[in-house]
Amino acid sequence: MPRLFAFHETDRATGGNTKDREHTIRCPKCGWRPGKHDKWACACSHTWNTFDTRGICPECDAAWKNTQCLRCHQWSLHDAWYDNDAPG
Q1: What's the structural domain count of the chain?
Q2: The domain containing residue 65 runs over which residues?
Q3: 57 belongs to a structural domain
Q4: CB atoms within 10 A of CB 82
Q5: CA-CA distances (angstroms) from residue 49 to 85, 87?
Q6: pLDDT in tens, 26-68
Q7: Do 32 and 69 form a contact (C-beta atoms < 8 A)?
Q8: Do the domain assignments include residue 88?
Q9: Beta-carbon count within 10 A of 9 CB
């Protein structure tokens, strides 16, 4: 089963988050919220924001079950990042 590799993280001061994204996507281990410009890399070398496609690589269509946090570097199920109970 493929695993998504963390690529780089953007400046937290600017973030690039929209209000909706801030309240719905976060690391289940540390609570970090990815910004719009954060990127992950697929095994095919394509880089993109995995939350734009719910873990599907737009280049090779690999479906990533796990995602690594760019802050705490822990792995979690991709679906666990979507916090449906957070205030909006």
Answers
A1: 1
A2: 5-81
A3: yes
A4: 13
A5: 22, 23
A6: 999 999 999 999 999 999 999 999 999 999 999 999 999 999 9
A7: yes
A8: no
A9: 15
Per-residue tokens: 41: 């890399």
Are 36 and 24 within 8 A, CB to CB? no
Tokens representing 35 are 């910004």
From residue 82, alpha-carbon distances to 26, 32, 43 in Å are: 7, 12, 23
CA 2/CA 71 separation, integer angstroms = 21
Spatial separation of the C-alpha atoms in residues 29 and 76, rounded to whole Å: 8
Contacts of 22 (CB under 8 A, 6+ apart): 33
* 43 located within any domain: yes
Put simply, whether the predicted model's pTM sits higher than 0.85 gets the answer: no
Q: Measuring CA to CA, which residue among 76, 74, 5 is closest to residue 39?
A: 5
**C-alpha to C-alpha distance for 37 and 64, rounded to whole angstroms:** 19
Tell me whether residue 35 is in a domain: yes
